[in-house]
Every structure is written in C-alpha cells, then in structure tokens.
Amino acid sequence: MQDLTELRMFLASLLRPIINEAIKEQLRTAQNTQQAPQELPELLDIKGASQLLGLSIGSVYQKIFKRTIPHIKRKGVKKIYFSRTALLSWLNEGEQPTQLEIRTQAKKSLEKNNYSKNSI
Prior knowledge:
This protein is mostly helical. It has 5 helices and 3 strands. The longest helix is centred in the first third of the chain and has 34 residues, at 2-35. The chain is elongated and about 95 Å long.
C-alpha cells in the first residue's frame, strides 16, 4: 500500500511540470491568435467581402446581380473585386438613426420653423 502511494506521488511529480508547460503553451497560442486578427487588404475578392459584411457568398452575389453593392469588374475578366473602403462606406450609408436622434432632429426642425407645442 505504501509503495503504491509513493509511486503515485513520484508519477505526479514527473507529470505535473509537463502538463503545466503544455497548458501554458496552449494559452500562449490562444492569446497570440486573439491579439493578432488578420487585417483585410484594401482590395477584396468575393470571400473577403462576404467575411467583411457577415453575409453568405450567395447573398453577396445577389447584391451584385441587383447592383446594390459597390463592386469592381473589369471587362473581359470574370473575377469580381471589392474595395474595402467602399464596402464600409456603403454599410455606413445604411445606418439608421436612433429614436433619440429622430426626436432631437424633429425638435430642431420645429424650433427652426417657429412651431410651438400649442400650435400643433
């Protein structure tokens, strides 16, 4: 019984540093992956555009077909490209105002036109 306990303690003392080092290495790898996200280039292909927009490739193709998304296609070349800056601008154009922004704008408009609460 004493021999078995001593064997367990001996094995634990051998394995503990190995296991700790393996855990530390995994944590370092995970941190490096999180700290260095891959920056997208300025000129994107269909896959890069779908990743940037968070859309499926099929959805991006539909937007190309409907001509609702900015894209670059050279005459005689099948490949489609996207400007990262143009896509981000396109996204920002669709930004919807908040309720507070709408109320503030309405109030300013009413004040500009000299309307008061009593005249409405």
